[in-house]
Amino acid sequence: MQRMTKQEKKLLKFKVNQENRKEKRKRQHQAKRVKRNQMLGEMSDEERKAYIAQERAAEQAIKTESDRVSQSGIPLIFDFSYYPMMTSVEAGSLQSQISGSVGFLRKQNPQYFKLLCSNVPEGLVEKLLKRGAKSWNVQVTQQDIKDIPDLIDKKIIYLSPDADEPLLEVPENCAFVIGGLVDRTIRSLQSLHRAGNLGVDVKRLPIKEHANNLIKPERRVFNIDTVVQVLHWLAAGVEAKEALIKSIPKRWLN
Questions:
Q1: Domain extent for 185
Q2: What's this model's pTM, rounded to 2 decimal places?
Q3: Where is this region: Disordered (predicted)?
C-alpha cells in the first residue's frame, strides 16, 4: 500500500475537520430549532404572533442594513493575490474564514463595511459566486486593488502584522485591505512587501500596545475573521483594547 504524502495527509485532515464542522453546525441549528419550537409551544397565540412578528422585523432590519452598507460602507478588500502560493488546504481555509467574516458582519446592526475580493483568479470567480458571494453582497473582481473604482480618492490602509504603526481607530474616507494569505507555516513580511509595492499605507492591529500580555505568543497572528471583527468594533467606536478582547477567541487568551 502506497504511503500518503505529507500534503495528502494535510488535505485529508482538512476535509475531515471540514465535515466535522458541518455536522457540528447542523446539530447546533437543529438544537436551536427544537428550543425555539418548544418556546413557541409554551406561548399563547397572541404571544406567539408578537414574537414571530418581532423576529421578522429584526431579520428585515438586518437585510436593509446589509443592502445599505453594500452601497455606501467603508470598502474592506480581501486581497487574493497570494492565492497561487497557497495549498488547497490553505485556500479552503481562506474561503471559510471569509465566510465566517461575512456571517459575523451580517448579524450586526449597524454595519460599517462593504466587502470586496480583489485579484481573484479567473477560475475562482465563479466558484466564489456559487458559494454565496452574490447573496452575501460581496463584490468579486479580478482587478488589482489600485484599479478598483470604489477606491478612487480613498486612503488605502493595508493591514500587516509586520507594520510599525498600530491602527487605533478607523479614519474617515479610508479603505482597508486584508491580505488573503492563510499559511500554516507563517511567511513573514509578505503583506508588508505587498503594501510597499502598491504604495499604500500599512498598519497593524494594536496587539503590542493593548493585548501583548493577554494573548498566547503563538496566537498573535490572527485569522482573517478575527481581524474583521476587530475592525468592526473599532469602526463602532470601541476602544482598541476592548475591540481586541471582544474579537479574540477565548481559547487564545492566557
A1: 73-252
A2: 0.83
A3: 1-40
